[in-house]
Amino acid sequence: MSELTRDSAAQLAARLAAREVSSVELTQAHLDRIEAVEPAVAAFLHVSGETALEQAAEVDRRRAAGDDLHPLAGVPVAVKDVVVTEGVPTTAGSRILEGWVPPYDATLVERLKAAGLPILGKTNMDEFAMGSSTEHSAYGPTHNPWDLDRIPGGSGGGSAAAVAAFEAPLAIGTDTGGSIRQPGAVTGTVGVKPTYGGVSRYGLIAMASSLDQAGPVTRTVLDAALLHELIGGHDPRDSTSIPEALPPLVDAARQGALGDLRGVRVGVVTELGGDGYQDGVRARFEESLDLLRSAGAEIVEVSCPHFQYALGAYYLIMPSEASSNLAKFDGMRFGLRVEPEDGPVTAERVMAATRGQGFGDEVKRRVILGTYALSAGYYDAYYGSAQKVRTLIQRDFAAAFERADVLVSPTAPTTAFRLGEKLDDPLAMYLNDVATIPANLAGVPGMSVPNGLSDDGLPVGFQILAPAKADDRMYRVGAALEAALESSWGGSLLAQAPELEVSR
């Protein structure tokens, strides 16, 4: 493997700025890596090699001309296939959008291009972001680089696997109930869900509009801060975009890396632990708390009593919004169109045939559930009640943040499970997000930092939650934990990953 694919994005940016390497060389190294490991990992649905090299050449030209460039200019990035990209197929992992090429870019893609980051391609995902394992992709599963027989998390397993397999130094994911953080935990990568409204949703194919949030997937906390600052900030095209500047995320990460957390109160959420959490996950969590304590943080216990109802509330709110959002995929306007094999060709019959063939089982399950929850006579009992629970969870967060600056928990209850192990048990699959869902319901930011290996030799994640619009707090604490862990390991966690067998 080329050393260019091993370095962090910040290190690569420094090498580019020093003219030690060109963006074309760097991008080609990652394209070579993709070619070598993709048959095993299957992280990408589309690779844009030629376009990425053109973007890299333009950055090199501008750097040679002395132009003022973004710090990440020339560093390649991969983008989850739920984010629309002009001229590049965007499928959301679904047959119903197979071959669809958007005529415009999402805001975050515009910002990536304007900053000069070559886009390597689009990453695999659970169909319409509905899943926790990337097994619900219509184009086949992605494999975890740590163990190719295991899942890479979901729905953004492609982005996490691409970063963990050194196919991309940076990636974009989206997080509706944990789809950045849970893949981060099981692949040994850093995954960040920003404050809701902190990164524009314009150009994201919506699943649940009040929950969806795009964010960075990286190998270090500093890299995540650099990417987050690039894609974040106000966007007038998104009515839910926060009309304020982001807090200083990169500065917070650099400060945290110094390892001084004196004066910081870290709250351990009682309800996000205990039964159902793997022994190795609990052990690594307690060890990480000790490291934060050694850095000067005060560890306090906090209770969020309504978190126990978060999973149930989420699986009413999310499918209800998905049912509404996915109504546009009707075989009439764009994407797949299937006409009935016999009988009259009516709008209703075309819609039924198209959705029947175009949507996978998990999407159908959630659309049916959401449609039922919104139906006359059941709306107040189900959707209305779930929204009341959501308010109680938001109040739990507000009370907890009066006692602590950040809240922490394991990111996921277990390490990566085997492919196929939970496909026939939707509830068991949904429980993978039990610790991540509360943040989406409340709109607060969350981060998963790799904090070691469980007894099975697979990565574990440590979740850090901060108040809305205080994303810098989690970057400071995350960077401090990362620095302490890497000091004890003698390097990064991904350096301990087994080398993939490549195709040549």
TrEMBL record:
GO terms for cellular component: glutamyl-tRNA(Gln) amidotransferase complex. Residues 25-473 form the Amidase domain. It catalyses: L-glutamyl-tRNA(Gln) + L-glutamine + ATP + H2O = L-glutaminyl-tRNA(Gln) + L-glutamate + ADP + phosphate + H(+). Gene3D superfamilies: Amidase signature (AS) domain. It comes from the Bacteria. One of its GO terms (molecular function) is transferase activity. The keyword Protein biosynthesis applies. One of its GO terms (biological process) is translation. Its EC number is 6.3.5.7. PANTHER family: GLUTAMYL-TRNA(GLN) AMIDOTRANSFERASE SUBUNIT A (PTHR11895:SF151), TRANSAMIDASE (PTHR11895). HAMAP family: GatA. Allows the formation of correctly charged Gln-tRNA(Gln) through the transamidation of misacylated Glu-tRNA(Gln) in organisms which lack glutaminyl-tRNA synthetase. The reaction takes place in the presence of glutamine and ATP through an activated gamma-phospho-Glu-tRNA(Gln). Belongs to the amidase family. GatA subfamily. Heterotrimer of A, B and C subunits. This is Glutamyl-tRNA(Gln) amidotransferase subunit A. It comes from Luteimicrobium subarcticum.
